[in-house]
Amino acid sequence: MLCVVYVLNFLSRQLPAILAKPIQDSLHLSDGQLGRMGGLYFALFYCCISIPVGWLADRTNRSKVLAAACAIWSAATMFCGLASSYLQFVAAYMTVGFGEAGGVPPSYSIICDLFPTGRRGTALGLYNIGPPVGAALGIAFGASIAAAFNWRYAFVSLGAVGLLAVIGVLWLVPEPRRGGLDRIDDQTSASKPGFGGTLAMFFSRPSLLLAALGSGATQFITYGLSNFTVLFLMREKGMTLREVAVDYALVVALGMGGSMLVSGRLIDRCTRRSKQAYALIPAAALALAIPFYLAFVTASSWRLALLFLTATLFLNYFYLSAAVTLVQEEVRPDQRVMSGALLLLVMNFIGLGLGPTCVGAASDFFHAGHPHHSLQFALYTLAPCYLLAILLFLALARVLRNERHTEGEPIG
After folding, report:
1. Fewest CB atoms within 10 Å of the CB: 150, 170, 273, 382?
2. H-helix or E-strand containing 98?
3. Statement: residue 89 has pLDDT above 60
């Protein structure tokens, strides 16, 4: 049920990117406006509200927080479909971000109270198939509905399904005992950390901060790419909306979905021997992704582009299960929701907030000189970010190698 809600969460977030072309034509938007709407504006609400929601969920019923969040973002998704101007759409979409901030961090914490150490990477990997499934369903059904009727129907239909999912959360997701599968002493479990204490702990721990920064640099690539992939394939590679609904949906399902399943199991297996695997696996995957990404951008046809994109997506997402599992393992059970929220704050502000915004701005910049290939040139600007992300994960590997266990570090 948590994964189903994550599917709806990510679907609501990605639908404007999937339907970028018809939305752009209907509301007369530039690439820069699309980038700011799907990036900076959404991320501001998402990041700002995630911290207080995380603090609240660490002290209350996480399932009810999740249900309330699902209700908010689903209703806001429906309003996106009713928007008649750019400002109305932005206001509704920012409210989607407001609701989604309460979706993922409580789920991370619930899963860690359902699975013990050594199985959490696989469990979180299974949960993290929500984004690829959500993106694939959004592409398949969203594009099909838009092609058959209108892009507005896709938003209204998705929002209605999300409101029904609220009932499923309340019925099927009971609140597990917090820290029930962790070995903690009575004194530790009795003292609840304050808001400032958890905040200071997270940003003072080099391993947690580097995991967040490395993930942020990676998300700069993934969100910068995903928010403009459909527009790029349609406008510069010649795909139609119906072709997007089938072929691109399969690519996302296989590439991203396979990455989540493989990376979670690989993390559990390799971290039994060394914690450095939390960093070395994402670094190696990103290094392998670079030539595939460049081949995708330069491909001569959309079919060839999709082939290279499948490998790119598979390798791009190894970081997610690694970073989430590391953070959840390294903090106390009663700090997990807020720590997960802080991880999302850093990586979403950098990746979601700045990635699409910069790509959209770059496309507008290149449009004057290259009107038919402005997005291609804009996507080239993401390539150096691979090197930055790799360096950050290598720095994390060094910290994990040298880090000695002290009081307040890994439990269990």
Report:
1. 273
2. helix 86-100
3. yes
